[in-house]
Amino acid sequence: MYSTVSVVTPPAVEPVTVQVLQQHARIDYDYDNTLLAMYLTGARQAVEQFLGRALITQTLRWVMAHQAPINQFPLVPFTAYIFPLWMPYSMLFQRPIELPRAPVQAVSSISVGEWGQADTVLSTDQYSLDLTTDPARVRLHAGVATLPSDHIAIEFVAGYGADGTSVPLPIQLAILMMATFLYEHRGDDGGEMPEAVKNLLWPYRLYTFGDADA
Q: Which domain holds residue 210?
């Protein structure tokens, strides 16, 4: 089974500001501010990928296709979650589906479709939501499985809130440390996420196997 997550509407702001990054990195000049803003965005995206979380409110689209990538190992790791390729596609219509990003604020739409045809948008009475769990879950109701479908797409809104004050402090610190690391190691090889950053993030990392028992 093929699975992708894309950003429909990006966050309006970053969890921390360039000014705070300047203080953290002890930078007392402004001529690198454009570059610092880029590193902040890159650091935030890297942290989101590592966590499997959306930090600032944003709209995401998750597509699962019936066709699996060729020659993949039976357990394919995606960002912060693993999707079992051996799971029958039909199980999507029988068991709760765990959304791959958290925290989820709302599900905007769910649609199913076939190759070369327009998607069918499901009505809200064709599925149930559980937004209190982490990750959030969707259950498709009986009858949806009879619709022609080679793929399913779920568009949802996720994030801790509209600004950085809602993001846990350890995650904010991890972004500052990651952005500073990227700024200070420009052009260097081996730009892996520092262990100190990971240590701040581990308690918040999301794991999901794509579906869950009731």
A: 1-214
